[in-house]
Amino acid sequence: MATSTTTIPTTTDEQSQPNLSIDRSKWKEHDTPQDCGFVSTLAVTLFLGWNGILIFIVVYLALLGSVREYMIFIGICTLSLVFPPHYLPCLGSRIGSWMVINAEKYFGLKTVIEDEQQLIDISKQNKAVIFAFEPHDLIPYGVFAFSPTLRRLPGRVGEDGCCLMSSAVFRFPILRNVYTWANSLPVDKKTFLNRLKNGKSLTFIPGGVQELFMLENAKPHNLVLLLRSRKGFIKLALSTGSSVAPVFGFGMNGSYGYWLPKGRLMEMYSRYIGYFPLVFWGRWRIPYGIPFPQKIMVVIGPVIDITNKGNRITQSEIDKYHDLFLKELVALFERHKHDAGYGECRLTIV
Hints:
By secondary structure, this protein is of the alpha/beta class. It contains 11 helices and 12 strands.
């Protein structure tokens, strides 16, 4: 597979040039003191630890569980799958907000918005913004920074935002409820397009789960993003006149130990089922547990304004804005990598 480094390609189109001279006085930073105490750890366990919890319950029931315990577990899972994921919305919303607020403390979340006024202006126009978050890493938990509960984004852009995740997550009992309470939805074209048409912003990861194949334990300073062929979101932005904002999440790499089964067959299988079967471990070396409490930093670059083309979209327009997005994402990484402790890292886009 051919690769390209962080070198910014040149173009003759002035609108396609990346904005390299950023006015730091416009930056809005919000830094949360880190707290890895009992309450925040419990909240993150209920938020991100359900993979391990469910596996532990299944193993326990298989080896030691009684018939009564087995039936209770089956009943709970059945109810979770039968009822809609947003069942009991008031209670679910409170649980989701509590988890997200404590995750903010657990990870000591820091956000940097390079041009907040742009987002305020877009909110006043009732337009949507596609926050294209990278990298995916093992589990892209950094997207919780866009939760309306945390109020990190201004105006309607922040109030109506949500995260679009792999549809496979919403096929699992309990997980589907937890992530719905945390303001997430399946990342399918219908949901994506409906939100944009209604002026509702969203966050998603264009590289997707396939970026896991790019992870290499032996090369921790190499960050590889699978973006060269990911142009569908640009086409949807053009069809609705929605803006696109490059986003980079620092601090997630190294938050888990892992073993990745690789190969063409595994890649095809993971694409088919919508998630990547792998072995990982987190805090206290617990298999499928919560991440190590590493401080994370999420940076949001200047918004790329995209003209509404409706159904009159050409491939050259898609390519132009996609190239601009890649350049802006790379420039965003370069501007913040030293502050985030990534000075030795090399970014590659394939």
